[in-house]
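Worked Example 4.2. Read the sequence first, then its structure tokens.
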Amino acid sequence: MERDSGRILQVDIAEELKTSYLDYAMSVIIGRALPDVRDGLKPVHRRILYAMYEMGNTHNKPYKKSARVVGDVIGKYHPHGDAPVYDALVRMAQDFSMRYVLVDGHGNFGSIDGDAPAAMRYTEVRMARIAEEMLEDIEKDTVEFVPNYDGSLLEPVLLPSRIPQLLLNGSSGIAVGMATNIPPHNLKEIVDALVHLIDNPKCKDSELFNLVKGPDFPTGGFIVGRKNIIEAYKTGKGSISIRGRATVEKLKGEREAIVITEIPYQVNKAKMLERIAELVKEEKLTGISDIRDESDRDGLRVVIELKKGTDSKVLLNQLFKHTQLQINYGIILLALINNQPKVMSLREMLQHFIDFRKEVVYRRTKFDLKKAEEKAHVLEGLKVAVEAIDEIISLIKASKSPQEAKEKLIKRFQLSEIQAQAILDMKLQKLTRLEREKIIEEYNQTLELIKELKKILGDEREILKIIKKELLEIKERYGDERRTEIIEEEEHFSIEDLIQEEEMVVTISHQGYIKRNPLSLYRAQGRGGKGKIGMAVKTEDVAEDVFIASTHDYILFFTNRGKVYWLKVHEIPQAGRATKGKPIINLISIEEGERVTAHLPVKDFEEKKNVFMVTKNGIVKKVELSAFSNPRKTGIIAITFEGRDELVDVALTDEKSKVVLFTAKGMTITFKEEEVRKMGRTAKGIRGIKLKEGDYVVGLTKVMPGTEVLAVSEMGFGKRTKPEDFRVQSRGGKGIKGMKITEKTGNVVKVISVKEEDEIIIMTTLGKVLRLKVKEIPVQRRSTQGVRLIKLSGNEKVCGVAKVEEE
């Protein structure tokens, strides 16, 4: 330590780490991960193209081995491994990665399935024609050159690109503390925007956005919505949704298939199909019978065959939602300006390219002017020579040496050394009359060229004219049609778009468990059967109610306390027939002691319908359906009670209905709906029927032409009765006998209107379900007790009845 004390530096480790990390970060930002806004390239891509240009590996020359190109790049300019250089070279040749490929590849360069390319010793490359536009005029001092990593060669800081490469092919990269993700665009649109900006420097952003519709991906597909595109173009940051292209094709036997022909940019097709297969296996995607990849050299084609009866639109929406058939693409328009990273708007990027081209054209013109002036200087000397050719020949013949001849020429004709040397180097054929005229003509043309070049250098408008002309030539030569379509209005998937519309049997237990099952699970049985298990219930619990609704319906749940809650049918958990379901309290915020006593499936709250309610004590009330159109998690009041009353049943009516109320003891009253005026939600209602001691209302139904009134008792008896048997009375009376009640039948539990072609579902307290055709239930008079509909055991009773309407 003593010996080396003069070589040891005392440093603050925190400061050293800070400095070293910042140096590393800047090295990554500038020298590796981010493109330059001017030529749109990262160092590795720039070095690859320059190395190929130096090798003469152009589009009209034979292919060269990729290993040869990679060797030149890492040997001369890029002091990194060969693998990242070859990866960059490969990507520049992939037509599914680059909107306009810069390298023409020969061999296996990978696939959209994520297959690796062949090793670089097997593949061959040459520059694509459009890439040569990026190196045009590089020898005319248009860009700066700097020493390479070992100082033995010079390499360009930029390429004098004629094409707006950054926006055409985009770029993505992760630096330190920042990242860029610039999407590819259509050449025609970008050139149109550049030309418009040259002609109208103060144009509005909206004018540019009308020309540049949005990104244009090599893999096609759709961009959903323009609003997010415009936001990204304005601020430099945003997110857009990209969707694959899929169509529905008809197959034999009324079956359909979804055919995918385009997928979102940078999505691995094989992994996407694996994910679809996983979702099918997990039963998150149902209705798929087969998945086939029929892609070939003519294009991408994936066929997803559907099972019979599957809704193709719903399944397609599920694919968009749960797979990479639709993705979000984050846009970050970040690039280097004078070696400083900056997030830019689309307008700024376009303007930076125009400014860069102005500099390139100015430097090129300056270079051409210098060469033209040098040429004019020589031609001026030759012109002097041809005009005094005899004297000059004599002077040269009389000279002892070339040096003496040069000195005499300079002195005699006031020439420069360069001019004198050009005269001495002139071939004898130039002395012919035709050649002498050609020298004078060339001299005059060169003077015209000098005049033209000076005019360009002295007027920025002339430079802009040249830029515009070259851009339009590029557009004419390489422009093609847009591949990615833009859906103008952004579509938001509602959950219903992902769920197939299907009739469901919803069951509720006395202790508040709820579930749903497809109606198709229950096949029709004969009258008097035992039914099958429809709901598992605890020993101390009993099944209480059953109803049928579509997965897309709202269910209005009315409770015994007169409140109403909302739920979508698809939000009710689907469970097997032998399971109890989920506590309803977990789905809707009912209070302790509150229980659901009635429910109403509703598709559209805008319908001109009324909600007709009846309480246990016979109070009725009518409220417009639209009064319930604003769901609240905590529910809202539907009816206010007096005393210990409860809400027992509700129905949708249309102002013209006849309403039938039924009591537990078989009494019934029928009156016109118009006898009950519309009320506000919090009103108390009016009397519908006078009840005898110990009797209470169990339900209501509306009578319509062509229907019968079906009453079912707790011991499983039921009957149909013609509506004309229930004469219309005034509201508030005692009513008439609607069903004969005995110990054998038990009290009435449910009343509904049915047609002969309908079916019904009967639910028992032990969770058994029987599906029955209505035509098997006989039509009987009011005062009869009906026939046995379902066999019960022990203390089992009927608790619910629901109608299955004919489709």
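Now turn to a second chain, presented in exactly the same format:
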Amino acid sequence: MSAMEQLMEKTQLSRRKFLQVAGALSASATLYGCSGGGDGSQGAVVAQDNLVLDKEMKTVMSCHPFNCGSRCTFKFYVKNGRMIKLTSAGDIPRADSTAADEAVDLVQRRSCQRGYAQIKRQYQPDRLKYPMKQTLERGNLNGFKRISWEEAYTTIADQYKIVTARKDKLGYIPAFGGYLNYFGVVTSPQGAPSFENYFNCKYGAIGINAENSYAPDILNSKLIINWAVDATVSFSWQPHIFWWLTKAKEKGIPIITVEANTTDSVTTLSTGYPNYNLPAYLSVRVESDAAILSAMANVIYRKNLHDVAFINQYCFGFYKGDTVVSQATGSHPITKKAYAGQTFTTPTGMSFVEYLDDLEAKNGGYAGVLKWASDLSGLTSDNIEKLAIAYGSTKPAFLYGGWGVCRTGNGMHVMWLLIALAAMTGNTNKRGGGAGFANWVSSSMNVVSLGGNKLSATTAKTSGSIAFSVNCTGKLIMNGLDNRAPEQLRADALNFSSVDLGAWKTTRDDVNGNDGRLRVEMIAFGPNQNFVNQKGPINPLLLAIKKRDIVKFTYGIDNFMTPSMAMCDIILPQTTHLEESRIDTGAQWTTAFMFNKVIEPMYECKTSYEIQSEILHRLGIDYGIYGPRGNASDLDLIKEQWAGAKIGSRYATVNPNATLPSFEEFSAAGVLEFPVPTDQAFLGSAVTTDPGKYVTDTGRINFFSPYYFYRDQALGAKFQKPDGGYYRTRDVPKAMYARPIEGYSDILEGKLNAKGIKYTLQMKTSHNRRRVHSTYDNVALLKEQFPGILIINAIDAAARGISNRDVVYAYNDFGCIKVQCIVTKRIRQGVINVSDGEWYRASTSETYEAWIDMNGDGTAEKYVVPVDVGGAPNTLMHHIEMGPMDPVTGYTGDNNWNGHLVEVSKTHPDKK
């Protein structure tokens, strides 16, 4: 076992020990190319002749780019080409520091630990320093050897030529990632770990581009229900939502949090609602949200708290037999028939009122529905009822359903019910209200729009792709199918990509194709993506990628040896955000951020643009604007963009006298923020859309979606179910509670899984303070401060003989992780929490018998896989989805990160 593998195998590691081991690796250069530059290129510590010391300390303003939800501004102090220290936020000039600090129209972007760790990350000893190739089996960290850039470029270009030649036989290029779509139709894994259920829901319910108002609008609310968002860790993409919720609390707006964990949002932001005797925190089981929301909707409807006028004017599918003549401007994505003028009628049994009636009929009336939701969720019937009455009676009220709440086995319907509750109470189009989700106003609201560049990167055109479910990547590589039936996959490829995969054949024909299968023979992993850790169940993916007879070649670009890079045949080291310049105007709509280059690129690292230029050059495509073959630097390009920049028309209505600074002034400041008074907060399209004009098939907010109901009938009769109903998804396409593939109901029923085990715990994932998804996972200082842990309730731990800080195994049919645990009362009994983004690391000494259906026949087979000592939660993620991917939305029918049935023990589960 190598030194680094021993390091990764330990679940507890002091910072001093980490640095000792990592330092030894740096000196020996046995892994990652940690040689300090090797050929004399710049490194963390490099002996140099004729070194001239720079006595001046330079300061450079820049920002933090990673998707933790916000952008923070920094002043970097640089001496002798090295970053010495950094400061945040306080360097931004204020006319009146006290007043400005409390103002809500300008936000001081103070950094958290992740931002302050930028220098630590930049100078990590495990930084990728030069190109490398794998000389052993994929995944073996000892097999990487240093090669030249020329060998790397030539090898990759040659593999491009091999795989692109396959389109003559297959009709497409059997690969994904990289720059292959310049040469033809490629394969494309679709789906996102944060929001695919959310987007699927929006497409059918309110329009995929519908947006909530800008975050400051919550200060106009009279009640905020925070549904499972920990705003102290994850800032919901654009705004500093923790800031706005703090200001809401200071203003006296009641805040209630619904969540399985006692998060810091519960303890620091939540207040309760004394007027309705509601506590600050409602502790619920995982995957029970849709049941609670259904019961709340029933209370609101039975007590006549719904907004009849809004429903009649803006909504479709609420009442039985609802009929509307569409005014929508769009058209059907398959038939291309315009929606405008079409008459839509809700089929019998599909309206929301009929759903509520059916709930009462099945559960014994009004009280029975509350008891049903209580049994699933763990909330009392009284609190569910009071929460419903409070939300239905308080106007305007903001129902804050973040992306995390939909990351469950019934997440699409959780989000649909959030949208439904906002609509049925008339909160959707109210200032201070909200549409039930957290997608704030879009780039159409950008305060600054950048100008273009006169030089185009290339005149080459790109082709389309054949989409497949990212959660089924492993199954698709092995078997040629995701969760679609062969005839569905063939029809989708033909309809959306003009590629005929052929009829399904039981015998695989890899030479000629045309057997109904979709192939992946090459994979290019992009920078800062960590595909292995973030895009679905890990073990099926790794089992498939290791099959060299199927996946012929893999390469990747990144800063560190992530789990994805470990599976590559060639690795290319990329620059970090501190080694290049760019402008960002799309992260927060009232702010523009300048990413100044702070230091020169270290070691042999190159920008992604340089790498792209060199690979495409060897394939006959001119990509000459960037890199050594180009005629413009990144600084030249962004100067030109700023020269053509304009203040957005939306902001001009707020401040018609606003002007842009010069590029030099903007660069020196690092950030340009424009104030927006609370009473002028930008309103999103969900609020401002006129009746009948929502971007859905009906033009209204759909409680029932005609598109999803009739989706496969549009493909032709052979794709319909015999009863004429929906084919693509196993659940009714309307707002409702949908039982997840596995969940608490299975625990109540004593479900046995393939291993013959009754798993009695549910796993929840959450963001960790030390990481932005997977980024920063390897920073030793943060890892020591916020270690990867499993959180378990004290009662559950006692029943298993587990004590605080024990190293435990969490396992199910799909895999096993080994991690330290925290025993606490801050998590609900029956639920464990493992933070997402932990880097998968295969144990070199322990294996586990997993049961996985890799061939798609519906029966799981036994595979011996390594125990994951990195603690990645999607090692335990099942790959049975609620519904196959819909190629129109580009997302699967289920992104199930939360709710998996698991068990936890102190001893190895296969040895019990």
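Notes for the reader: Residues 744-911 form a domain with the Barwin-like endoglucanases fold (CATH 2.40.40.20). The CA atoms of residues 850 and 863 lie 5 Å apart.
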